[in-house]
Batch of 2 targets.
Target 1
Amino acid sequence: MTITRDPERNEINALLEFTGALKGQHVLEIGAGNGRLTWRYASLAGEVVGIDPKPERIAQAHDDLPKGLLGHVVMLETTLEDFRRDAKGPLFDVALMSWAL
Amino acid sequence: MVHALEITHGLLKPGGLLIDIHPSGEPPPVEVHAGSKVLLAGHVQETDGFMEYFQADDALAEVTAHGLFELERETLFPFTIHAPTIRALTDYLENEWSDAILSTPVSKQLAELMAEPGEDKKIIIREIVRISRYRRRGE
């Protein structure tokens, strides 16, 4: 008896429509949380980095990471500021903020 | 929020896309679905009156006005949360949406609707969500 979010897939359909299905795109998901949305699009994108400052969310994401996405998705516990400080220049084709701003 | 958008601008390649998804700020209805019937129990409120979503809108407008991004496209879509029981819903709100409020009248109405005879009932919260696509400007 669990909660289901967006079973109609309206969110992922809108995202894919707005991004050309993310084909080959290098994506930064800011506030990726437990990967709820990430798992829905990551296999289509070129490479995905998800960041979130909450350790429990990232731990959950690591637990839930689908095997097929291993090596394709990196989920990091960090703030946007710290991530930017360590990044080398502009890196991403798409920045995604879902319920994150 | 503006600072976060400025940092994001620096992480995007020239011409890259910023996709923002957040609720419109309209109080979401709480519905009980029983077969083909849909009964309204009330609306979810938030402790801050959905202020953070309006602040997000303002921040996006500000960075757009400053020339960091150009708004290319936006639309609204419904985002639903399905709960099989009141307990499942309240647990979810407590853990995942901590600033959500089900007022006493809404909770009472929800309990009454869920207690009525009928099978395959479920609770659906229906948020109206905005997705926006911005193009990074500048080199």
Note: Chain A has a mean pLDDT of 93.
Target 2
Amino acid sequence: MPGIVGPDEVRRISHEALDIPGVDGVEVLFMHEWGGLTRFAASSIHQSTWREDTGLRVRVVTGGRVGVAATNDFSPRGARRAAESAREMAGVVAPDPLFPGLAPADPIEDTMRFDEATADATPEVRAAGVAELVATCPDRFAAAGAYETMASEVAVANTEGQFCWAPSTQASVTTVIGGDDGGSGFAETFATSMDELDPRAIGRRAADKAAASQRPHDLEPGRCPVVLEPSAVSTLVGLLAWIGFGGRTLAEGRSCLSGKEGQRVTAPSITVFDDATSPGTLGLPFDFEGVRRSHVDLIADGVFLDGVYDLRTAKQAGKTSTGHALPPPNPEGPFPLNLFMVPGDASLDEMVAATDRGLLITRFHYSNIVHPVESTITGMTRDGTFLIEGGEVARPVKNLRFTQSILEALTDTSMIGRETELASEFFFSASRVPALKVESFNFSGSSDH
Amino acid sequence: MQAAEAAKAAGADYADGRVVAEESESITVRNQQMEGIDRSNSEGIGIRVLVNGYWGFAATARLGPEEIERTAGLAVEIARAASRLPMEPIRLADADPATGTWHSPMQEDPFNVPLEEKVALLMEATHRMQGVHGLAFAEGGIDLFRRRTSLATTEGTGIEQTTVHSGAGIEAVALGEGELQRRSFPNSFRGHVAARGWEHVQKLGLIEEAERTATEAVELLSAKECPTDVTTLVIDSGQLELQIHESIGHPVELDRVLGMEEAYAGSSFVKPTDRGKLRYASDLVSITADATLAGGLGSFGWDDEGVPAQRVPIIADGIFQDFVSSRETASVLGIPSSGAMRADGWQHLPLIRMTNISIEPREGSLADIVGDTKDGIFMATNSSWSIDDKRVNFQFGCEIAWRIKGGKLTEMYRNPNYTGITTEFWRSCDAVGGREDWTLWGTPNCGKGQPGQVARVGHGAAPARFRNVQVGVRG
């Protein structure tokens, strides 16, 4: 099995790029990833894979002109070639007046998120985890999902003397359990170490939800209160990040939060921040241009404070980078990858009990932006949608389409869960969020299952 | 071949080794400034094995003989671990061993075109857009891609293929009070990509269409909101492309139908027993999956199992005919593979992916369809998409719309969208345009699978008309 390349070898290879002549500055982003994913459907393992890749992304600056080249040839020759290619590209473009320079030297401590056993996990270990999960399936139910163990190391080196390196691991179990009578249930968990995963508990949770979801009823769409479980809340927070919190979209007036700094944008009970180094998430201590990741308060007590910045957008806005750069060239600008919503004091049961008539939503599916400035999105419910009547879960209902403004939903939030989960509908990040009770949520259509 | 033999020696009943080398180049210009210019290269090998009826797959970028042997052994180990949960052993539908080479059509290699020429094209197009008063952002992009694939299997297949994709597009953004309006050309999300050379980019007309594109973006700021109504809907070929992709292409993937994608992207409302029976659409709608179309992103000589490119009827005169399939899934139904297995690079296991899933052209131009419509709404250029996990309930947003009255486009509307149920919508289709307005579009960003894969697929589409469609969904 492959292991960590390590900072010394990264420095050695990067030097071949950093040393290229005839340029003002060079930055090398190194990414090495390896691990396996065991995928199951119909309660059997049907696709099981393992992969390893090592990449170098070299950014060259000359006279304010910037070029980027990437390769997975992790060798002195590969690094040199990438640097030469980036230099060639930089030579034909106009100077970038907003180019802020490369990150200055700043020693950044590792967050110690590397678990050797997870990095070395064998296919047998993952298969055993899947078997534990599948064993929770009752008769006439079947499980599908994935058990993944991944390891990675990321480093940034530049000609300003900055060098930072961090290894990390991630393990996850996700499942959808379906029954013969049309309903399904979902559960997932992410952690730094596979020891923190409990496939049996994930299976039981999804199986219980699947059992409760059988024979779903039709329901007319319309506005009603909802209790959103953390997975559903992660969709709202993740898409708000996409259209709202980036320093570039804010500065350009494209964000739903542009010009609203200091204004109330949600209920006073809502606080959202980004913190890659918090123990509750899976972030790296530095961003992809080698800047230390900062804790950023985005919405505090319902008031929008500010967004996140990389070096370029910070220069554009007259601010300091918060350490939220994505890999170059990244025309979209900075992005918060490790969001948190501060929990409240309610249990999920209390939220349901406080709802006379409404819906309990497990998660959303294939959500997308309808109107970015109004923060309006659409998507479907999935894997557990229930009608609440008289403060109790009355029966499962067929999936519904919602079309709803995120900021309006967060303004109409009346209760916040006291437990949080790390969850995501999307591949690019996960948010640690609680459940929410929203007093008015717009359902614009329905499906047949 | 070394990979397949090493896997066989390690105990595989079947094995294939696929060496893939990819290169890409991307240029983005916004408001006369370079937003990004980058090149990427990636090379490695993916080894897939079948051991006692269970799949295993391992991939590495290290191409030395020892590393290939180690990776092949790991693939076998993975397959053996999968047998912990018993299932009906996987069988592969028969396929003749394939040998040969294939190259996508190309007149001028886009990677050989000087960078200065590419940058100049985008600078000029964005300059012309910026000349329109009131425009906030003028953006242009060029994306080039080349993939070289060598596939060898223990059944005797040995093939080499090279694909080159070229694409470009422009986008105009206007900002108003609480409004952001966008117009794209020739299509949204970075334009029009085709399996062609630089000649494709040169023919797009980015400079010629720049001013109109920008003007429409600015005009949208003061246009009325698209009304909420149930009405006749005409959509352009760029939007019909994505409608086909989401509501026909994905639902007819046989792995989804058999539940293999259940936990992630979802499954399908279409059942194996629907072949030859399900009234999917109106009589006017015939859909084919054609991997032999010149210029399509879903075109190839053979798929990543070595099955030859085919033209497969998916819907004929409104009746569902067949799925897109792999050797594994086809064997479940006792049919031959449709040749639709493709992997994203060397790192991933091949999955069933759309080839070029297209609507067959009928008669007339977009102008003819509009001219034949007394009252309705015409929407153009996709801006948003969403569909449920069985591909039943969908909602699409478009960049722009106009009211059709008496066969003419009249008032412009902003923020148009429409929603529906897949089969109800397609059954309501009563006009499909002809060859003159039919375009083979490229969709280079189709996501599927775990770990996530991105496929480059094609869709031929013409303008079309649908009756009794819900438009103007509000939040």
Note: Residues 225-471 of chain B form one domain.
